[in-house]
Specification:
With 622 residues, the chain is of the alpha+beta class. Helices cover 45% and strands 19% of the residues. It folds into four domains: 88 residues, GIY-YIG endonuclease, CATH 3.40.1440.10; 122 residues, 2-Layer Sandwich (Nucleotidyltransferase, domain 5); 177 residues, Nucleotidyltransferase, domain 5 (2-Layer Sandwich), CATH 3.30.420; 51 residues, Orthogonal Bundle (DNA polymerase, domain 1), CATH 1.10.150. It contains 20 helices and 21 strands. The strands form four sheets. Strands 14, 15, 16, 17, 18, 19, 20 and 21 form an eight-stranded mixed β-sheet that branches. Strands 4, 8, 9, 10, 11, 12 and 13 form a seven-stranded mixed β-sheet that branches. Strands 2-1-3 form a three-stranded antiparallel β-sheet. A hairpin with a 5-residue loop joins strand 19 and strand 20.
C-alpha cells in the first residue's frame, strides 16, 4: 500500500522529474523540479490556490514516483520525453504534431541538387526553412531548377558521366546535363551559387539576367524562349513581392503569442528567417482549463522546440515565462549556438508580437464559430430529430436503400451516420441473393435480416468490449433505423427486428410526389418537419447518401456485366485476358478502336487472339 504522507518524507532535495499515477496506475501528470522535496510536497498542502484543474488532478493521485537528475537541464529534457511518450491527462499538451518542409541544397555533392526535405540532418547540405507550406516549397524548388537548370537525378556524378543518354529535362532546357559533360564543374557551381543567393532572398540579379535574356530572345525572333524567360521573370517577381522585411538585423527568429478562452488556447508563431517573414502557423493546446497564460506559453516552447529540427537564434514571446535561463541553455545546446528569449515592450518588435496575438485570437474566434455551426449541422440536427420522435439518446443512425433496373442485379446499401456525420468506414454493400425481379420490399427484408443476423453472430463471439474493434461495423447496432420510404418500408424493418427479437426505433423518410423529402413516419403517424431546420437538412443528406451509395454499387455491377457479356463472346478471350485488356484500354470502345498491332502488345494477348478480337469488332464493316 502506497502511503503518500510517508513517501513525501523520503523525497530528496535535488533536481529531477516526478510522475503522478491514478488508481488504475495511469500516468496523469509529469513535472520537473529544481528541488523534488519542495515541489512534490507543495501539491499536497491545503488552501494554497492552485486552481480547480490542479485540485482535481491531486484528488486522483494514488501514488507518485520520481527520477533524480544531475541538473535542472537534464530534468527538463527528461520531462519533455516522458510527456511525449505518455501524453498525461493533466499536462498541457501541444495538439499539433507536424513536420515542416525544408529546402535542402546538397553541397556535399560535386554537382549539388536542390531537394525537398522533411528532416534537417547534420550533414554537408545547407537547409532553408522551415516553411509552413509544402506546396510553396515544391513550387520554389521547381522554379529554381527552371531558373538555374540544376540536375534532379540521383546519379553519382562525376562517376556516372556518359553512362546514359541525357534525360528529358535536358531537352526541355531544365537541366544543363552535367551527366554528359556539357558543363564544367566550375560553371555548375556558379549556378548553384546563384540558387543559394536566390534562397537567401537576393532576387535583383536574377531579375536583371532574366530581363536581359528575354530582350535578347525577342530581338533574335526566338519567341518561345522569350515567353519562357518572361514567365520565369514574373514568377520570381511574384515571390519577391511576397517577402516582407520584418527586421533589419537579418536574424532568424520566431515570434510567439497566444490567445486563451475558458477551454482552449491557440499559439501563433511567425517564422522569420534572414530578416524576412517566410510564414506563420497556429497550434492548439489542450488541457488548458485554469492554467495560467505564462504556463501555457512555457509548455508550448518546451514541447514545440523539443520536436522541431531548427532552432532560431531568438524567440520573441508575448510575456515572461519561468525558467528562462534553463530554457535558453537547453535551446542553445540543441541549436549548437546561443539562443535568446526576449519579451519586447516597445517598438516594431512589440508590434509584431501584438500582430501574432491578434492572429491567434482570430483563429480561436473563427474556429469557435465554425465548430458552433458544425455542431448545429450535426449534433444539433440529431437532437432535433430525436426530439421530434420523442427519443432520449440518438447517436448512431443507419439508413438503407435498394437499387435495381427492372430487377437486374438487385443491390442494397447500408450507410451509417454517427453524431450527424457520415461514418464511411462502416458503410456496407449487399448483393441480393434470394430475390429475382423488382421487389423492393423482399430485397429490403433480405438486406436487413443479413445485416442484423451478422451483428448478432459477431456479438456472440465477443468475450468483452475490448475485442469489439476486431470485428466489423455490424457488431454495433443503431440507435435509430431510418428507412427510405413510408409505412411499407417501416413495417418491413419492424417485422425483421421482431423476428430477431431486437428493439430498435424505426422511422421512415417520407417523400412527396416530386420525390422531395416531406417528413418522418414514426409510430404509425407522419410527423411534419420544418424544411428550413438543420434536422430536415440532415434527413435529406442521409436519404441522398443512401441512394448515391446504392446507385454507385449497381452501376459498377452493370459495367462489369457489360464487359463480360461483350468480351467473353470472343474466342480465345477468357477471364485472365479480359482483365489484361481492361487494364490496358479502360473501356470497350478503346478495345474496339485498337488495331491488331496495339492489341498484340497487351500482355497475355498473342497475335492470333489479337486478330480474332479485331475481326470480332470489325467484321461486316466497309
Amino acid at each position: 500500500m502506497f502511503d503518500i504522507q510517508e513517501e513525501l518524507k523520503k523525497l530528496p532535495n535535488c533536481p529531477g522529474v516526478y510522475i503522478m499515477h491514478d488508481e488504475a496506475d495511469n500516468i496523469i501528470y509529469v513535472g520537473k523540479a529544481i528541488n523534488l522535496h519542495n515541489r512534490v510536497r507543495s501539491y499536497f498542502r491545503k488552501n494554497i490556490g492552485r486552481g480547480p484543474q490542479i485540485d482535481k488532478m491531486v484528488s486522483l493521485i494514488s501514488r507518485f514516483e520520481y527520477i533524480v537528475t544531475d541538473s535542472e537541464l537534464e530534468a527538463l529534457v527528461l520531462e519533455n520525453n516522458l510527456i511525449k511518450e505518455h501524453s498525461p491527462k493533466y499536462n498541457t499538451m501541444l495538439k499539433d504534431d507536424k513536420t515542416y518542409p525544408y529546402i535542402k541544397v546538397t553541397l556535399g555533392e560535386e554537382y549539388p541538387r536542390v531537394l525537398f526535405s522533411r528532416q534537417m540532418k547534420k550533414d554537408k547540405s545547407r537547409y532553408f526553412g522551415p516553411y509552413t507550406s509544402a506546396t510553396a516549397v515544391k513550387d520554389t524548388i521547381d522554379l529554381i531548377n527552371k531558373l538555374y537548370q540544376l540536375r534532379t537525378c540521383n546519379k553519382n556524378l562525376p562517376r556516372d558521366c556518359g553512362n546514359d543518354r541525357a534525360c528529358l529535362n535536358y531537352h526541355i532546357k531544365q537541366c544543363m546535363a552535367p551527366c554528359q559533360g556539357n558543363i564544367t564543374k566550375e560553371e555548375y557551381q556558379q549556378q548553384v551559387k546563384k540558387a543559394l543567393d536566390f534562397l537567401n532572398g537576393s532576387y535583383q540579379d536574377t531579375l536583371k539576367e532574366l530581363s536581359r535574356k528575354m530582350q535578347e530572345a525577342s530581338e533574335n525572333l526566338e519567341f518561345e524562349d522569350a515567353i519562357r524567360y518572361r514567365d520565369l521573370y514574373n514568377s520570381v517577381k511574384q515571390i519577391a513581392s511576397k517577402q516582407k522585411i520584418t527586421d533589419s538585423d537579418g536574424e532568424d527568429k520566431d515570434i510567439i503569442a497566444l490567445a486563451v478562452d475558458d477551454k482552449d488556447a491557440v499559439v501563433q508563431v511567425f517564422f522569420v528567417r534572414g530578416g524576412k517573414l517566410i510564414g506563420r502557423e497556429h497550434f492548439y493546446m489542450t488541457h488548458v482549463s485554469g492554467t495560467p497564460r505564462a504556463q501555457i506559453l512555457l509548455d508550448f516552447v518546451k514541447q514545440f522546440y523539443s520536436g522541431t529540427p531548427f532552432i532560431p537564434r531568438e524567440l520573441m514571446l508575448q510575456e515572461e515565462i519561468e525558467d528562462v535561463e534553463i530554457i535558453e541553455q537547453w535551446l542553445s545546446g540543441r541549436r549548437g549556438g546561443r539562443v535568446y528569449i526576449k519579451v519586447p515592450k516597445i517598438g516594431s518588435k512589440e508590434k509584431l508580437v501584438e500582430l501574432a496575438a491578434k492572429n491567434a485570437m482570430l483563429v480561436l474566434t473563427q474556429d469557435k464559430e465554425r465548430i458552433r455551426r458544425e455542431e448545429g449541422r450535426t449534433i444539433g440536427a440529431v437532437k432535433e430529430i430525436a426530439g421530434l420522435l420523442g427519443l432520449s439518446d440518438v447517436s448512431r443512425m443507419e439508413a438503407f436503400d435498394i437499387s435495381n433496373i427492372s430487377g437486374f442485379a438487385n443491390v442494397g446499401s447500408m450507410i451509417v451516420y454517427e453524431k450527424g456525420k457520415p461514418k464511411r468506414s462502416d458503410y456496407r454493400k449487399f448483393r441480393i441473393k434470394t430475390v429475382s425481379g423488382p421487389d423492393d420490399y423482399a430485397c429490403m427484408k433480405e438486406v436487413l435480416t443479413r445485416r442484423f443476423m451478422h451483428g448478432i453472430e459477431e456479438q456472440k463471439e465477443l468475450e468483452d468490449k475490448e475485442l469489439e474493434k476486431e470485428f466489423g461495423s455490424f457488431t454495433k447496432f443503431p440507435d435509430l433505423l431510418m428507412m427510405d420510404g413510408g409505412k411499407g418500408q417501416v413495417n418491413i424493418a419492424l417485422q425483421v427486428l421482431d423476428e430477431l427479437h431486437l428493439s430498435i426505433p424505426v422511422c421512415g423518410m417520407v417523400k412527396d410526389d416530386n420525390h422531395n423529402t416531406r417528413g418522418l413516419y414514426y409510430n404509425n403517424e407522419e410527423i411534419a418537419i420544418d424544411r428550413n431546420s438543420e434536422g430536415f437538412k440532415l434527413i435529406t443528406r442521409i436519404q441522398d447518401e443512401a441512394h448515391r451509395f446504392a446507385i454507385e454499387y449497381h452501376r459498377s455491377l452493370r459495367s462489369k456485366a457489360q464487359v463480360k457479356s461483350v468480351l467473353d463472346e470472343i474466342p480465345g478471350v477468357g477471364p485472365s485476358r479480359r482483365k489484361a485488356l481492361m487494364r490496358r484500354f479502360k473501356s470497350i470502345d478503346e478495345v474496339k478502336n485498337a488495331d491488331v498491332e496495339t492489341l498484340a502488345g497487351v500482355d497475355e494477348i498473342p497475335e492470333s487472339v489479337a486478330r480474332g478480337i479485331y475481326d470480332f469488332f470489325h467484321s461486316g464493316e466497309g
